[in-house]
Fold each of these.
Amino acid sequence: MKILVTGANGQLGTEIRNIAGLYEECEFVFTDVEELDITDGTAVRAAVNGNAIDLVINCAAYTAVDRAETDEPRARVLNGEAPVLLAKAVADRGGEIIQISTDYVFGGQSCTPYTEEMPTGPQSVYGLTKLNGEKGVMAANPRHVIVRTAWLYSPYGNNFVKTMLRLGRERDKLGVVYDQVGSPTYAADLAKAVLQIATAKEKTYGIFHYSNEGAVSWYDFTKAIHRMVGITECDVQPILTKEYPTPAKRPAYSVFSKAKIKRVYGVSVPYWEDSLRECLKRMGENM
């Protein structure tokens, strides 16, 4: 099987690259914007056909959530239109696509974990464009798997864990939102789940949710990060979302049910604290 991974320099793409060698039955083609402009239909088709691609894993996205509020055209192209180009190109070869999506497609008003069947209702440009990408992929290629995830972090790039480590060491006081609750996702765990789906002998197409087990607020997540690495000099205080206004509205509740992905694909889902501890060790933190 030949697999094209787009957005290969991002958090998830990098983690997929890290474990790709374990999948000897697969040949991977890793691209980021320097190698392939996924908004260029001609370039996408040439990459898919020229490399005889059987499966596309689209990790590329416009992820600057707040900037998207004033840069809607670019977010729409990258999140809504480019995935359709990839889906169509590989569909013409009889191939499949795994599209990575987000908790932002939901409104965040639920008080029970989101299942794949629950109604969407994005509250931001980012969420709307990602939802449009989902719909476009589903329409363009019946052989699709959409994996929604949330609160992604890793040793790579910019993410919440790295920011809280830095701020915890720079500041003596820090306010962190406590009325937004979700499930953090360690990108290395997500990479394993995505490749487990990619290499499954029997495919079930549709939408699946993946994040680590458990639920936590951003405040409690920060406290856990600091506790694990021994940051004690920073006084972390809980604040309300309205005390930290942002251009894009965040979902107040982003906890996923992982029952479907566990049942259908046999994916194991680690507890968020265990995965956080593993990531911090990889980052060279003294635990």
Amino acid sequence: MVVSSEMTALEQYIYDEIVPRYAGFDAAHREDHALTVISQAMELLGRMPACDIQVRRDILLTAAACHDLGLVNGRENHHMDSGKIIRADAKLREWFNEEEVETIAQVAEDHRASGKSAPRSIYGMLVAEADRVIDGDTIIRRTIQFGQKHYPELDREGHIERAVAHLREKYGRGGYLKLWIPWSDNAVRLSELQDIIADDDAIRRKVSDIYNLL
């Protein structure tokens, strides 16, 4: 990454050392994903209504950047592995005390969409929301790409069936995806996606069209 004189030492560490680690992950979680979550988290912070809760930009930035580092060990326990990686990162102690590092680690542990309870801090809620960028085409593409990587034995129809089933389970009405930030635009976008998912013909056609483009 090009060094900027206006970039803080923490930001330089994040963009030069943390974000590049995503290059080795699956297609849905590469560097562009990390940068999108960072951008979305910062946007949510900027739109946060005035309240008594204080949110530090440096903690949020770091949490957003580090939230998926555990994917280096695979997806199944990546949220917990991310927390371990964050706690073990001695470099972070240059900017944060132990309590702050623990907060960042908990954000990673709490961000997973399948989590049964709300994140433990406002930082966790912001990153979890930022990680749920609700764009129908992007979600469907990432779902298909995940299937292609992890279920290579499936044929075209198998991938479409798997994608549709996953979309219903996670994003459909009654699905396990939860949104935590009321001022986010995600709720409106999710409702639009749910309309498509609820229509059997529409969702199969949409998944099929995007599959054909990959």
Amino acid sequence: MTDTDTKCLDTFPEWLRSLADDASDLSSAIGDQDLPEPIRRYAVAGLNYLFKSLDLIPDGIEDLGYLDDAFVLRVAAALAVAETPGAEEKAPRVMRLSKDAKLIAELLGDDFSRLEAYVIKLKTGAARGRTVDEILTDDAIRRDFMNEVSGWATSYEAPNFARDEKNLVKLKSFLSAKLP
């Protein structure tokens, strides 16, 4: 087992436990009109992914079903920070999530760039009939979206993640097969 595998097996259960709080943190960034547009846009894109009917890894898959959601939120945060000078002071919660993307990059290797490209495309996508642009520009749609995120966070129940190397193999296989 590599050091990266050990870090992932130690860290991923915590990411699953904190997913609802992470979503709430990003949701608060959406409502803060003083934050730079890239932070708000990537926050919406990452959160909108929670509501996509076709996840990279279906939510019902034991141990792994919500890890893709945790990955997308962290990669979205990292991309937002990369486009926003001074992000640490402007959006510390987003900055915290962005730092976790390094572990994802270590785990995925060459496939990480495919995940980044996928998350970048989420900025122009839609889920449940709402585009990122509509959420950012329409106050009523944004309020509804933020309420939906809040409801999702309240109802979310963290799945167990078995500390088993086979889960990392399955995770990498799923992402390698599903990422465009």
